[in-house]
Amino acid sequence: MVCLKDPLVQKICEFYEKISMLDSLKPSKDVDTLFTQLVFTCMPPYPIDVTKLCKKIQEIRSKLIRLCGEAEGLLEKHYSSILGSFDNPLGHLDIFPYYSNYLKLSLLEFNILNQHSKGVPNRVAFVGSGPLPLTSIVLASYHMTSTTFHNYDIDSSANSMASSLVKSHPDLSKRMIFHTTDIMNVTSALKDYDVVFLAALVGMHKDEKVRIVEHLNKHMAPGALLMLRSAHSARAFLYPVVDPCDLRGFEVLSVFHPTDEVINSVIIARKSPFSMHSSIDQGFGPLMLCSICAEIQVFNPLSQMNMIEELAAEKHHS
């Protein structure tokens, strides 16, 4: 059982105490400093399994993830507002302090997608796009230059801010569409997408994430791809963890755990040609996923190899 005796856990708990005492999580010197220090503390590979944390630390982790999510949302709103004041917002994206991380993460996700897709997708959905939809913008601008992106967010103000960033762009204004709705209310439209991206902070608790994945499985087209963001090792104090074995009805294709400044792990899965309920009834779903999970456990999450190099190596051997 991992508990307060662990030096990393002690340090993270200290950050939690300081962050939870802040009057506001809006961008400021104190907020930025604390979260930057927290991220750098959680970044290095560390042999910790958050599923084995004691109950007290599990509760602190859950609260910390929510605080991180709130702070991230406020940070994105802050910079989206600044970018929206420019005549050409997309020409100034590099003012966002984590823009380079999004460039690397988007490239990683595109390379992973390329390995498991027959071609560049025509229609993509991004669930939880937020006020600063950098993943959609970067993918649409540099990697999927003919793809239409449907961005879903439950917050109307976030969508309003996001759409204002692309409305003056002659190309992206036509290929970036914004929907204000809970993804759980979207049904038949999900069959239209070749790929669905699920943001890390959509479904903060495991039960929520599982319900969303079940909903996507029910309504996505057979053979469509699901891209999820997760977290591993100490980075799981920053973002929720997606257990590949919880992706019932999907064939898990790859799981990647970056070891650089890209914080999120990336999971890609394909919607099974069987319906989730019929495959489970016949015994196919759980068996397929258990075998996949067993393979994933062989992957060494503490490898220092750059993730792009791992992608290249896997492609070479396939």
Automatic annotation (TrEMBL):
| The enzyme's E.C. designation | 2.5.1.43
Question: Do you know which Pfam families this protein is assigned to?
Answer: NAS
Q: Which GO terms describe its biological process?
A: nicotianamine biosynthetic process
Note the InterPro entries from the entry.
Answer: Nicotian_synth, SAM-dependent_MTases_sf
The entry lists its GO molecular-function terms as:
nicotianamine synthase activity
> Any idea which UniProt keywords this protein has?
S-adenosyl-L-methionine, Transferase
| Reactions performed catalytically | 3 S-adenosyl-L-methionine = nicotianamine + 3 S-methyl-5'-thioadenosine + 3 H(+)
Family annotation (SUPFAM superfamilies): S-adenosyl-L-methionine-dependent methyltransferases (SSF53335)
Biological function: Synthesizes nicotianamine, a polyamine which serves as a sensor for the physiological iron status within the plant, and/or might be involved in the transport of iron.
Protein name listed in UniProt: Nicotianamine synthase
List the lineage, top down.
Eukaryota, Viridiplantae, Streptophyta, Embryophyta, Tracheophyta
